[in-house]
Amino acid sequence: MNVEDAKPSAASPVAPDKAMGADESPRGIVVGEPGILLRLIKNQKVAFLVVGGVNTVLSTLLFVALELTFGQYVSSPVVLFAAWLMSLVAVFFVYRKLVFRVKGHVLLDLGRFALVNLTSLLINMALLFLIADILGYPRIPSQIVITCCTVFINYFGHKYFSFRRPPPEGDAAAVAADQKKAL
User: Fold this and answer.
1) DSSP assignment of 60-81
2) Using only C-alpha atoms, what is the Rg of the chain?
3) What is the pTM (predicted TM-score) of this model?
4) pLDDT of 42
């Protein structure tokens, strides 16, 4: 991304500073022409949460369907992993195209995306196994509560890691701002 990409244009109804919030630098994410989601919602943070919320509901419904179909034959981690893997691939492309509008680095982005989601999944599996299989609480309500907790890991991981792009070369102001924020 070059500096020109970060400037609002007349052709773009959603200027990067409006789509990401005035307090954020657009350099972390390549903002292309806004897709239908950003034209409707006009705020990237809200779009992220909407997609994440829809994915959470669909993933939970997928978990419930797999649990009801195969739960008597396999342990909860197997059911959870199957639901996770199916939803991971689908939501990656939705975030990439509708929310973050990034280009290039598909495999790198997918790897990072999977790593963030894998971290969340492992925490989810451990908690589900502890709460449902060891403590004996019902799997489905337990999974719903755990999902509400792990959504924060995904939000910050994708925002700051999965789809992040390095600052343009020579963008000393952006590097200095990042260093100042880190302190």
Assistant:
1) HHHHHHHHHHHTTTS-HHHHHH
2) 19
3) 0.60
4) 82
